[in-house]
Amino acid sequence: MAPQPDTATVIAARAGDAAAIDRLVAGYLPLVYTIVGRALEGHADVDDVVQETMIRVLSNLGDLREPESFRSWLVAITVRQVRERFRRRQPDAPIDADLRDPGADFTDLAITRLELAGQRRETAEATRWLDEEYRELLSLWWLEASGELTRDEIVEATGVTRQHAAVRVQRMKAQLETARVVVRALNRAPRCPELDVLVTPWDGRPGALWRKRVARHTRDCRVCAPAWDNLVAAEHLLAGLPLVVPVPALGTLLKFNILGGTTGAPSTTATTAAPGLAAKVGAAAAQKALAGLLTVGVVAGGGGAFYAYTRPAEPIETAAVVAAPSAPPASIAPSPAVSRSASPSAPAPASSSPAASPSVTSKAAVVTASAKKGVGVWKFSGAKGALKDVGASWYYDWAPSDDEVPGPSGVDFVPMIWGAANVTDATLKQAKSEGDGWLLGFNEPDLAEQSNMTVEAALDAWPKLEATGMRLVSPAVAYGGDTENGWLDRFMTGAAARGLQVDAIALHWYGSDFSKAAVNQFLGYVDAVHERYGKPIWITEFGLMNFGGSPRYPSDAQKVTFIKGATAGMEKRSYVSRYAWFGLPAVDDSVDFGLYKDGKTPTEAGKAYRSAG
User: Fold this and answer.
1) pTM assigned to the model
2) Cβ 139 vs Cβ 35: under 8 Å
3) Helix (H) or strand (E) holding 511
4) Is the dihedral of CA 528, 535, 467, 31 positive or negative?
């Protein structure tokens, strides 16, 4: 997830800056979804409550006196909206089973998408058994345990004293522990015969009554009593567990104008729904801020898209949840990229005719919207349609603007300052106006046929990139990013000595080994670079190509295997912020490695990449 916006963004949004409003909503929407989703446990009302929360936030933003307290204010509004939803429900009315969408169940997502194991799986299942008031508190405490909220923010959100909050948290944790025991007892194989008899009338739905009955049985039963043993403290489990929230399907989002009307035209009720915001930036801008940013992707057939809420700058604390592929042995070095004919204007190497490869049969495509997944794109007729179809969240075209390759709504464009000749006031101003807050540094400065810059020249030019106020991604070296005294190593050492800003590391990687080992060779390189610099990683070009002599390319089956393994590994690595396949077009000279023949026809590699994330 992109870092949450700073106070300057809040101030600009409060003043009516439409771009700042976009960034504010995009940055905080996952947090709101996490709080509401855990509190309502994936109920069908989640989308409505989130929508109501964001409308209320934007409507009252102009009255926020202390911009630095925006996040606490947002959390407090979110909790109030959750409580309002509980008040609207009749006290004793059961939840209609038809109102629950199993595909949007937050606990199911945590278990199936993250493949939880052991006590983490048990804890995720146990959250279903909590009372509603504690699900609300758990949604906040979970974020506290993972470092996303402070106790003071929880106190402010719940409207109780710090002492009362501490008592409530302890009671919630005790209930969660009991629920974990209940899950253990029910999942025991073989199950205790007496417990089997006890739960015969149970309808299978977690609830307070059956939690108490099963827990009481476990305390008195010799067979079930060991379920209380060896319970790891919940905070240790939750702190290492990424929060996964579903973002609504595209069709659902487009059905509603976030300010009250339909998406067919600007809302006629927008001024009533959000008078303060509409007066400052207009209904269209406010609609874009929510409707556009909510539309981050779909699962084909109407399912929910997934957004993994993690802290990308950390090492993998979640390794116990999902084991990342191990790095290759030291003797296996990442394949260095040799000179290529690719350039921003014509980024495809010379074509060759590969040997016939076996056809790859794929199932129905699943378009995903990983916040990490992107592509490198150069001009071709199907660019906009292919960007939408592949499920990319972002793209770049080696240029400071998207004039040549405009993308569809909801797909972020990231500008690049390609080389020394592009470090001009006009180009930097253009990049600042075009981007999503991030700016890519120089393209392969370590290669003579690319930007061809010395380390000193790059360091001397870097302060001009800093002056844009954007977050900066390092120059992307062609190879050797993990090499001591290599180009990138000398640049990072020089940047530290001069006090220069580098927010993330960009990497390129091309493998000439087309076997299954390529996945670990690639991921091992990514791991090594992160270990060296400790910063978030952007892989802005990667693929399988052998540039020795006449270029050679893998078969379709080899590309599919590599894409599946490499993208799965990057999704599991919290420090990998973004990645981009080289490249989107599969036309002319790029037919052997591109993803799309036109706006709606993926190659076999394109189908695999579309399903990635």
Assistant:
1) 0.46
2) yes
3) strand 505-511
4) positive
What whole-number distance in Å separates Cα of residue 125 and Cα of residue 106? 10
Nearest of 557, 524, 559 to residue 543 by alpha carbon = 559
- The beta strand positions in 310-462, using DSSP E, are 373-376, 394-396, 412-413, 438-440
Residue 445 CA to residue 569 CA, distance in Å, equals 27
**Per residue in 429-483, pLDDT tens?**
999 998 779 999 999 999 988 999 999 999 999 999 999 999 999 999 998 999 9
3-state secondary structure of 244: strand
Q: Which of 512, 507, 506, 518 is nearest to 563 (CA)?
A: 518
Q: For helices 118-126 and 106-114, what crossing angle results, to 10°?
A: 170
577: Cα within 13 Å, side-chain hemisphere: 23
Q: Which of 515, 603, 541, 613 is nearest to 572 (CA)?
A: 613
- pLDDT tens, 8-58? 888 988 888 877 887 787 778 777 877 787 677 656 677 778 878 888 888
Number of residues written out for the chain: 613
Structural tokens at position 199: 């739960």
- Residue 247: strand, helix, or coil: strand
Look up tokens 């599969």; give the residue: 586
Rounded distance, CA 279 to CA 259, Å? 13
Closest-CA residue to 400 (of 424, 380, 381, 382): 424
CA angle 533, 308, 108 (to 5 degrees): 140
Residues 596, 379 contacting (CB under 8 angstroms): no
